[in-house]
Structures are given as C-alpha cells and as structure tokens.
Design a protein that fits this description.
The structure is a single chain. The chain is an all-alpha fold. The protein has two domains: 2-64; 76-310, MetI-like fold (Orthogonal Bundle). The protein has helices spanning 2-64, 67-72, 89-120, 123-135, 141-159, 169-192, 196-204, 209-220, 222-237, 241-246, 264-275, 281-310, and strands spanning 76-77, 85-86. It has a two-stranded antiparallel ribbon. Helix 11 (264-275) runs antiparallel to helix 12. The longest helix is centred in the N-terminal third of the chain and has 63 residues, at 2-64. The protein starts with a helix and ends in a 5-residue tail after the last helix. Belongs to the binding-protein-dependent transport system permease family. CysTW subfamily. GO terms for molecular function: phosphate transmembrane transporter activity. Residues 92-304 form the ABC transmembrane type-1 domain. Part of the binding-protein-dependent transport system for phosphate; probably responsible for the translocation of the substrate across the membrane. It is found in: Cell membrane; Membrane.
Length: 315
C-alpha cells in the first residue's frame, strides 16, 4: 500500500511537471513568431532608412548641381576653387575598370577551381582545399590593399615599366583574388547539385571526364554559376579599401589602366575623412555618388535573381 501511494505521488508530480513544461513551450511558441517578425522588421526598416537617407540627401545635391551635368559630365573636380565640376562618369569608369579586371581574373580561376572541386577532387581533398580557399574571403580588405600597393604593383612594374604607383591594374587583380572564393564556392555548390545520373549517362555514352565537366555539368549548373559571378562582380563594384590604397585619387575619363584612377567608393572615403564641411555641395555629393553606387549594386542583384530564375534547371 505504501509503495502504491508513493507511485501515485510520483505520477502526480510528473503530471504537474509535464503541464508546466507544456505551458512553457506554449509561451515560447507564442513569443518566437513575435521575436522573429521584430528582427525581420528591424532589417527591413534599416534598409528603408538607408534608402530614404540617400534619396533625400541626393535630392539636396541636385538642387545645387544639374542632374544632366552630373550624369553626362566627363570631369570630376569637386575641390576646384574657381568652378567645381561634378561629372560622375570618371568615377563610374574607374569603378568599371577595376571591376572588369577583377572579373577577368576571378571568373576563369574561380570556375576552374569549382570544376576541380566538384568533378575531380576526392572527398578528403575537397574537405581540405575548400576551407583553405574560403579563408581568402576572411582576409581584411585593408590587408589586400597594402598587398596590392607593396607587392603586386612593384611586381607589375617589372613587366610594365610605364605602370604608375597608383593604377587600375593592380587593385583590379587583387580585387579579383578577393572575390575568387565567392565564385569558386558558389559555383562548386551549383555543380555538386547536378545529379550523378546525368554524369553517369554521359560517361556511359563514351564521354571523357573533361567532356562531362565542360559539356554536361557546366551547362546544367549555368544558372548558379552565372549568379555567383554577378554577385561577385557586384561585390567588386562596392569594394573600398583596396582601390583607396592602390588605385589613387585621380578621376580621369580614359581607358588607360596603368595610370591613377578614383572609384566611387574611394571618393566617398576621401570626402568622409574630413575634406569637406557639413552642408557643403561636396558633402552632399557623397550621397549622390553613394546613391549611384546603390543603383549599380541593386541592378546587379536583380540581374542575378533574373538569371537564376530564367536558367534554373529542375531535376
């Protein structure tokens, strides 16, 4: 009888504990959606706040400078004492020169690395090489900048004697090295998602390993590869410290890559470091340039999404 009483007492205690746990779980289940929606709203509201800040300050800039002169002008001389000029094309061209050079470096090397990791490397090799490759993405960009200025530029000057200390070629190459892990990692993920049955079918028809990689797997993973390239190039467009340290501060509207340049991000850094007073036209110009850069990156991201949806393969 005593043992039965103890068992009943224990079962009652267990039921009480279970009911308390259920109440706690119900409270957590009710709170979690609220917490998640608050965090989502914070990110959305932050984005909206940044966009509206750019729009309002850019509007103030265009109250002082003609939008036609800004969009189509070929001279950027905001610090000119007599007559400042705000033609953004030199900054845009400097940004595009660095981005194109970076893409020429990163795209072939990144896709080649992705093909090796996906199609040729063993599981053990992939587990070792891929994390090492992705370590490049964790290197601070200011370190890349000093690497471009103190190592890559002197090395290139031995090959190109006319190359100046500040140029577009050196930071373009280093930015390409910086975005290479993004292309390699995302492209490798896209290739690895291609079913093995497609590879086995191609091999059964007599295709070689290289033919399977280039003519079967690569086209099948095209949407993911192109999206990774577009995202990486948008990252190159927004790069700041590398081009600020190794590119120079001379906005010129010419296609020469051996001379000093200035990108949109480098100009924002220059003005933000204290070269212009608050409320001046130069001060508002950084918002106009920032808004232009925002439009560039937004278009690149929209292009990546369109390509991903347009050429996505379903298996």
């Amino acid at each position: 009888m005593a043992s039965q009483g103890l068992e009943k007492e224990q079962s009652v205690q267990q039921l009480i504990a279970q009911s308390r746990n259920k109440k706690g779980k119900k409270i957590v289940e009710k709170l979690m959606p609220l917490i998640l929606i608050i965090t989502a709203l914070i990110s959305v509201l932050t984005t909206i706040g940044i966009v509206f800040t750019l729009i309002f300050e850019t509007f103030e800039f265009f109250q002082r400078v003609s939008i036609t002169d800004y969009l189509f002008g070929t001279e950027w001389l905001p610090f000119s004492g007599s007559e400042p000029l705000y033609g953004v094309l030199p900054l845009v061209l400097g940004t595009l020169k660095v981005s194109v050079i970076a893409a020429c470096v990163a795209v072939p090397l990144g896709i080649a690395a992705a093909i090796y990791l996906s199609e040729y490397a063993s599981d053990k090799t992939r587990r070792i090489v891929k994390p090492i490759l992705e370590v490049l993405a964790g290197v601070p960009t200011i370190v890349y900048g000093f690497f471009a200025l103190t190592f890559v530029t002197p090395l290139l000057q031995q090959l190109i004697p006319s190359l100046k200390i500040f140029n577009a070629l050196s930071p373009g190459i280093v930015v390409g090295i910086m975005i290479l892990p993004m292309i390699a990692s995302l492209s490798e993920d896209a290739m690895s998602s291609v079913p093995n049955s497609i590879r086995e079918g191609a091999l059964a028809l007599g295709a070689t390993k290289l033919e399977v990689s280039l003519k079967v797997v690569l086209p099948a993973a095209l949407s993911g590869i192109v999206s990774s390239v577009v995202l990486a190039v948008s990252r190159a467009i927004g790069e700041t410290m590398i081009v600020s340290l190794a590119g120079g501060a001379t906005p010129t509207f010419e296609f020469n890559v051996t001379g000093s340049i200035q990108t949109m991000t480098a100009y924002i850094v220059q003005v933000s470091s204290g070269d212009a007073g608050y409320g001046t036209t130069i001060y508002y110009s950084i918002y106009a340039v920032g808004f232009t850069l925002f439009i560039f990156t937004l278009l690149m991201n929209l292009l990546a999404q369109y390509i991903s949806k347009r050429f996505r393969e379903e298996y």
